[in-house]
Design brief:
The chain has 274 residues and is an alpha/beta fold. The protein has 3 domains: 120 residues, Ribonuclease H-like superfamily/Ribonuclease H (Nucleotidyltransferase, domain 5, 2-Layer Sandwich); 42 residues, no CATH class; 67 residues, no CATH class. It is built from 10 helices and 7 strands. Strands 3-2-1-4-5 form a 5-stranded mixed β-sheet. Helix 6 crosses helix 7 and helix 9 packs antiparallel against helix 10. The chain is globular. The two termini are 41 Å apart.
């Protein structure tokens, strides 16, 4: 790959997807030099909190794997030096890795900014150039070009062909349409309500709007500013949010959804800095 300036490709493994709160458990970087030389940096990081089971299963990194690893603050300086003024590359780094890395470095007193750097996000380029519409699915699964695209009947028949091909590909020749149910995605339950006003993290429900956004949990809010909860009850919010505020004022708080235990995990480890 031809480059004229240092380029650092990077990826983060983290305790979750909440940029403002989740922590890094592994950072991998490859610095590409114009000469063609590559320099590799790879460290696991002790996040100072338990790693949720779903993350451990996905990454192969559990609490035991990072027990003796350094905390981010201990390696922030070398990470900052490694990044230097290089351009940056990765997959989905613009919306996740870079904002989270900036927060971690800033919290340790190191300046990090994407200003003056070129950012090459492979996911953005991928989605811009490889469409994910019915015509693309028809071409991928059926090996055909969809004629009369956006004609209701043509699209309907193409969808049936795609489903049939998916059954053959993922289930087998003896499979039926019902077998595709296992590919249904469950709604995301990180958020308590459809408006995403409150979000679960570490088994607690955090407010996501207003002056306490991402700072106070619901139980903290009930202790520190009951008038704010009273305002929520009287303002133009959904019935579920108003009911949540009313119950909080009475000292009643919802439990983390049992069907999503990962939302209840990640509690701070006693004796660790969080």
């Amino acid at each position: 790959m031809k480059i004229s300036k240092e380029l650092v490709a990077l990826d983060l493994e983290t305790t979750g997807t909440w940029i403002e709160k989740d922590r890094i458990i592994e950072i991998g970087m490859v610095k590409c030099l114009p000469s063609g030389e590559e320099i590799v940096y790879n460290r696991r990081v002790n996040p100072g909190m338990n790693i949720p089971q779903v993350v451990a299963e996905l990454t192969g990194i559990d609490d035991a794997a990072v027990k003796d690893a350094p905390r981010f603050s201990e390696i922030a300086a070398e990470i900052s030096v490694f990044l230097g003024t290089a351009d940056l590359a990765g997959f989905n780094i613009e919306t996740f890795d870079l904002p989270l890395l900036e927060r971690e470095l800033t919290s340790c007193g190191y300046k990090f900014s994407i200003e003056g750097r070129r950012i090459y996000d492979a996911k953005k380029i991928y989605h811009l150039n490889e469409k994910r519409d019915l015509s693309a699915a028809y071409r991928f699964y059926c090996g055909k070009t969809l004629e009369d695209a956006h004609s209701a009947l043509a699209d309907t028949r193409a969808c049936l062909e795609v489903l049939s091909s998916q059954i053959s590909r993922y289930i087998g020749q003896d499979g039926g349409i019902e077998d595709l149910e296992k590919f249904n995605y469950k709604p995301r339950t990180e958020f308590y309500d459809e408006e995403r006003r409150f979000r679960w993290w570490n088994g607690r429900l955090y407010i996501m709007f207003g002056k306490y956004a991402r700072k106070y949990s619901l139980d903290d809010l009930a202790k520190e500013d009951r008038k704010y909860l009273e305002w929520i009850v009287s303002a133009d919010f959904s019935p579920s949010v108003k009911e949540l505020a009313e119950k909080a004022l009475r000292g009643e708080f919802p439990k983390c959804p049992a069907e999503e235990p990962r939302l209840c995990e990640g509690q701070p480890v006693p004796g660790k800095i969080v």
